[in-house]
């Protein structure tokens, strides 16, 4: 598995298990799956995390199973997915721990 | 510099894939994306293993850069087209190296890997090899690279532009939100630095915004055109993106990238640090 390194900025493997160093007592993890309007997972979608003002915060590419994961902070966030099959977005109010979200894209 | 000499479009790239003297180079921190499919004919550069010194915290020196480009088959007179993931962060970082070492014609592919993929353009898994060359680099042009002491001296005198996300600027996060937040150095920003996240300069497909939009964004943020500018982020790659915008697209004269960035500054003993959403005082 690809290690998540603190030195880098590239998107880590989105399907990898949470690293043992991640403390869910402290971290706010926003994670989920991007799917199309027929419910199929979308691999290689670009998922953008936007803050409560709509400002871009981070972006990852979904795993072969359509998964994404962000380490954020408690609050309201928008997830915007871009893909060859269309785009879509979802709003989430995240709290400490794991926050599960799904995003559907459509042309 | 201008858009005409610093950028190429995806359409231009697609019709010049086999053009003689044009070399496409994918640059990423994690090169598994390249291995899973790259622009046909493109070679790869790994930001970490190819472009960083393996021991010291610094990037490759002139001799290492010459050896790398010679081995990968890039000539001094090639037109080098750089692209990558993460909205071209690492490609912009590599662009800055190519400029630092005096390469003649180097450009970014507008939109990078993201636009190429979203447009459903061709990707290839074929192995690419190029004949070795004898590449000669120039001495590093440090007029585009800032070091820590001049960053401290720039507080209150030059434009300092912090291009990280607003939460990193304010000290609420220590790293981009797709990474765990476990770093130990202090959070916050360099006093007087303006907060202009790199992402303001990019459309959602990764292409750069128009020159008019870019001028407006940095003007409204309070960037003083008459002063020199130093851009920084966390490790110097997002700030390469902004350096590229200010120097290569908008043509500002004296713009430096501080590649030590927050991971250096936020660990220095005795330097001033500002917290919160305001720039703070010198």
Automatic annotation (TrEMBL), chain A:
InterPro entries linked: DUF1416 (IPR010814)
One Pfam family cited in the UniProt record for this chain: DUF1416
Protein known as: DUF1416 domain-containing protein
This protein's encoding gene: sseC2
UniProtKB/TrEMBL annotation, chain B:
Statement: the UniProt record of this protein carries the keyword Repeat: yes
Alphabetized CDD domains for the sequence: TST_Repeat_1, TST_Repeat_2
Coiled-coil residues: none
Catalysed reaction equations from the record: thiosulfate + hydrogen cyanide = thiocyanate + sulfite + 2 H(+)
Keyword Lipid biosynthesis: no
Keywords, sorted A to Z: Repeat, Transferase
Rhodanese domain boundaries: 18-125, 154-274
Chain segments annotated as transmembrane: none
InterPro entries in alphabetical order: Rhodanese-like_dom, Rhodanese-like_dom_sf, Thiosulfate_sulfurtransferase, Thiosulphate_STrfase_CS
PANTHER family: THIOSULFATE SULFURTRANSFERASE
Official protein name in the record: Sulfurtransferase
């Amino acid at each position: 598995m690809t290690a998540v390194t603190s030195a880098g900025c590239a998107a880590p493997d989105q399907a990898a298990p949470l690293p043992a160093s991640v403390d869910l007592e402290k971290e706010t993890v926003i994670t989920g799956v991007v799917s199309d309007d027929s419910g199929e997972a979308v691999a290689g979608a670009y998922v953008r995390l936007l803050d409560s003002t709509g400002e871009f915060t981070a972006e990852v590419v979904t795993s072969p199973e359509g998964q994404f994961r962000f380490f954020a902070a408690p609050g309201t966030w928008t997830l915007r997915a871009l893909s060859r099959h269309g785009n879509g977005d979802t709003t989430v109010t995240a709290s400490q721990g794991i926050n599960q979200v799904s995003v559907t894209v459509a042309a | 510099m201008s858009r005409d000499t610093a950028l190429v479009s995806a359409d231009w790239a697609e019709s010049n894939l086999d053009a003689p003297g044009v070399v496409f180079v994918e640059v990423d921190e994690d090169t598994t994306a390249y291995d899973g499919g790259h622009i046909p004919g493109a070679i790869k550069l790994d930001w970490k293993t190819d472009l960083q010194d393996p021991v010291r915290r610094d990037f490759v020196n002139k001799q290492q850069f010459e050896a790398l480009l010679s081995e990968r088959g890039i000539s001094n007179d090639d037109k080098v087209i750089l692209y990558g993931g993460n909205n071209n962060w690492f490609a912009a970082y590599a662009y800055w190296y190519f400029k630092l070492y005096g390469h003649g014609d180097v450009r970014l592919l507008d939109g990078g890997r993201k636009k190429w993929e979203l447009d459903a353009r061709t990707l290839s898994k074929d192995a690419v090899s190029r004949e070795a060359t004898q590449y000669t680099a120039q001495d590093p042009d440090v007029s585009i690279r800032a070091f820590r002491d001049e960053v401290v001296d720039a507080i209150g005198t030059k434009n300092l532009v912090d291009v990280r996300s607003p939460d990193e600027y304010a000290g609420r996060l220590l790293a981009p939100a797709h990474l765990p937040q476990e770093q130990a150095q202090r959070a916050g920003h360099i006093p007087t630095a303006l907060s202009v996240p790199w992402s303001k300069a990019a459309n959602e497909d990764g292409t750069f915004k128009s020159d008019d939009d870019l001028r407006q964004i940095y003007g409204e943020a309070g960037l003083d055109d008459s002063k020199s500018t130093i851009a920084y982020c966390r490790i110097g790659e997002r700030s390469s993106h902004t350096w590229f915008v200010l120097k290569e697209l908008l043509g500002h004269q004296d713009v430096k990238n501080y590649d030590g960035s927050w991971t250096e500054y936020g660990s220095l003993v005795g330097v001033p640090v500002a917290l919160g959403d305001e720039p703070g005082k010198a």
